[in-house]
Amino acid sequence: MFYQPKDGHGLPHNPFNAIVSPRPIGWISTRDKNGQDNIAPYSFFNAVAYEPPQVMFASTGKKDDQQDSKDTVSNIQETGAFCVNVVGFSELHAMNLTSGDYPASEDEFTRANLEKTECQQISCPRIAHAPASLECKLTQIIRLPGANNFAVFGEVIGVHIRDDCVVDGHFDVTTYQPLARLGYRDYTHVTDVFSLERPEE
């Protein structure tokens, strides 16, 4: 099978969503200029650089009560800060609940019964018991082709790691089993890990 996206795929559901998978989920928490907190999951998310550490996520679509994006992007445009919370398997239902299209005035932390605490380097909430949280300052927002598509880049300026996730000096993902997005409405979580040495090692 071959298709050009501009011509359509002819399948019941878009296969592109499933081809690029699994994708880590960035559970992005923000605060607007008036102090309203927000949290929402984004599966177009990844780390993009080591030194300095940097991450990105992409937001697609818009809400009726925002000009051209969603609450997360709007809040970051206002404040220049956001926090990435890692999603463990045990939080899959709370994560899914925060993906809803709620009014900007609603705090998803409260709706999903998530305990929040303050970040240290930025004025932003984070999930108190997340396996890890990355405090980020905005570096740039890029408008992508297509309606309401934005890529948001940030430098990580603070890192929170839950103590039980550090095993023998390593951040051990098997302690919390990170949730990942597949295609369509499908997800997976990490339970097994193996290592490979580079050819020159």
Structure description:
The chain has 201 residues and is mainly beta. The chain is 11% helix and 36% strand. The strands form 4 sheets. Strands 3-2-6-9-10-5-4 form a 7-stranded antiparallel sheet, with helices on one face. A hairpin with a 4-residue loop joins strand 4 (45-49) and strand 5. It is globular and about 50 Å long. The model has no long low-confidence stretch (mean pLDDT 95).
Instruction: Provide the number of structural domains.
Output: 1
- Overall pLDDT: 95
CA-to-CA gap between the ends? 39 Å
Helical content class: 10-25%
Biggest sheet strand line-up: 3-2-6-9-10-5-4
Could you give a short account of the major beta sheet?
Answer: 7 strands, antiparallel
CATH class: Mainly Beta
Strand content: 35-45%
How many beta-strand elements? 14
Name the structural class: mainly beta
What is the correct CATH architecture?
A: Roll
What is the fold named in CATH at topology level? Pnp Oxidase, Chain A
* Strand/helix succession: HEEEEEHEHHEEEEEEEE
Instruction: Identify the CATH homologous superfamily.
Output: Electron Transport, Fmn-binding Protein, Chain A
What's the shape? globular
